[in-house]
Amino acid sequence: MPFFPTRARVNPEQVDTTPRRRPDWIRVRPAEGETYQRLQTLMRAKALHTVCEEAMCPNMGECWGAGTATFLLLGDICTRRCGFCDVKHGRPGPLDWDEPERVAQAVRAMNLQHAVITSVNRDDLCDGGAAIFAAVIRRIRALVPGCSVEVLIPDFKGSVEALQIVLEAHPDVLGHNVETVPRLFKTVQPQDRYEWAAATLTNAKRLAPHILTKSGLMLGLGETLEEVKAALRDLRAWEVDILTLGQYLQPSRHHLPIVRYYTPQEFAELREYGLELGFRWVESSPLVRSSYHAAEQVRALATPPSRAG
What we know:
Layout: H1 34-45, E1 49-50, H2 51-54, H3 60-65, E2 70-73, E3 77-78, E4 88-89, H4 99-110, E5 114-119, H5 130-143, E6 148-152, H6 160-167, E7 173-175, H7 185-188, H8 194-207, E8 212-219, H9 225-237, E9 242-247, H10 264-277, E10 281-284, H11 294-301
Parallel strand pairs: 2-5, 3-4, 5-6, 6-7, 7-8, 8-9, 9-10
Antiparallel strand pairs: 1-2
Helix pairs in contact: 4-5, 5-6, 6-8, 9-10
């Protein structure tokens, strides 16, 4: 039987997948304008993908309008099938070893001071795609001196060897999102393991303590507030430096439903809780995503720790 890429799906008979009406405090800026059009043309000309587009990021209009974007490596087809994600899943194509050069060229054309690099999961590869991450980091360093580089990596199934390949290229920030609380892990991302996320983040800090580490959660999938706080305590125990918290937004009625919307006040309270735990930076508001204000974080954390964020 042919194997065709599809989007993540949930069983509509098991849950009410009717999208909830968005509250007044969630306002998504349309992706438009001259800068946005220029960047979209640039991405297509270099045959590049961005997580901004593939994951339907609500901040795409704001970020692209400001001339920033998060590059998506290793194609646009993921080998995992998470219930929250709008990236296609299926059988990916072969590795594109010219991709690092094209990404670096785009970073130079955009005149970026901070580049954010992520990828789909590639469980079909022995290193999960780590070598491509390393090649992109090195090529950006060579082509755009002074540009800081942040990578948001898969868990590589907890592989220390794959993680080491990325770390040896010396990114400024290494991120991996846990996405949700342990109780919901198998519902939200059935092919992932909380233990793999723990291994990725703890090993990153152990192997390269000078590199900033980063993680984040989506809220509104059915977790309790105490479960969120317990997950934040885990992240601090793993010595994560930067935390992001945002509201889950259902891409379509075929994806996991929104159980509830958190208020801006609740996000503000969680930000304070995170800072009290010792995170060096906390981004916490409804439309926050992993790379939101990423450049500001790196600039601020080049100085001694503070409560900025």
